[in-house]
Structure formats: structure tokens, C-alpha cells
Amino acid sequence: MSSKKVLKLRQAILKYNTELIKLKDHLESSEEANLKYNQIVIKKAICKKELDEARMPLVQKFFKKFAHNTDKDKKLICDYFKS
Q: For the segment 32-78, what is each residue's pLDDT rounded down to a tens digit?
């Protein structure tokens, strides 16, 4: 994957980290802040998963598609929230 895509994903993860730090103080006092925090955690998880897939070499991606994987049945929380 292109380095621009990796750079954008890293920047997005850093942005989500700063937003999470800002919201941590307001979690217990505001329901709205709590919902926003949860949404950002999910977005960050999606970015991390995309970054891991982007770092994977092409050969590994190819074999991962065809190899029998028992973890395929397991779902991650970010799999339920496709954007």
C-alpha cells in the first residue's frame, strides 16, 4: 500500500488519541461525551486494523486469503461498524 495511505492512517490515529485524551476528563459527567468517546475508540480501532493490513507484505496477503483460518469465525468490534 502507498506510503501516503499509511501516513494518513497514522495521522488519523494520532488525532483520535488526542481527542480521547481530551474527552477522558468528561466521561463521567456527560453522556454525550461518553458516546463521542466510544465512537472515537471504534474509529481508532478501524484505522489500526487498516494500518496493520497496509503493513502486511503482498505475499502474506495472498496466502492469508487462501489459507484456512480458524480466526475467521471470530468477529472484532470494528467489523460491525463498516464505514
A: 999 999 999 999 999 999 998 888 777 776 777 766 656 666 777 77
Nearest CA among 83, 78, 82 for reference residue 38: 78
pTM over 0.85: no
Q: What are the cell numbers at 8?
A: 494518513
Cell of 24: 477522558
Question: What's the N-to-C CA distance of the chain in angstroms?
Answer: 19
What is the DSSP annotation of the chain? --HHHHHHHHHHHHHHHHHHHHHHTTTTT-HHHHHHHHHHHHHHHHHHHHHHHHHS-HHHHHHHHHS--GGGG---GGGG---
Contact 46, 83 (CB under 8 A): yes
